[in-house]
Write a structure and sequence with these properties.
It contains 3 helices and no strands. It is an all-alpha fold. It has a domain at 38-94.
């Protein structure tokens, strides 16, 4: 990320260490198969957002995982996801990384 982790306040970010274009993020998303009925997708999204928005849950994730939650809706998450695939797909291709 662009900010130092609270648990490691003396550890510089990659940007501070001299890599101005380097930023990685750990993220999670919930995916459903193509064709999942919209009401099911909506119910899962609503329930997930409610649970993750609970102050105790958010605080525990921040403390134990150094995570700040960004709860995106489907279209915003798709934009983020597509950007991640493009960014890291290029890294894999440019460096001939194989599984």
């Amino acid at each position: 990320g662009r900010e130092r982790l609270p648990a490691l306040p003396d550890t510089p970010t990659a940007i501070e260490a001299g890599f101005p274009d380097f930023e990685t993020l750990a993220w999670w998303g919930i995916f459903a198969p193509t064709g999942t009925p919209p009401d099911i997708v909506s119910a899962i999204a609503t329930a997930s957002k409610e649970i993750l928005s609970e102050p105790a849950t958010a605080a525990q994730l921040k403390e134990t995982q150094q995570m700040t939650l960004l709860l995106e809706d489907g279209p915003a998450f798709k934009i983020f996801f597509d950007k991640q695939v493009a960014t890291w797909g290029k890294v894999v291709k440019d460096n001939n990384i194989r599984a």
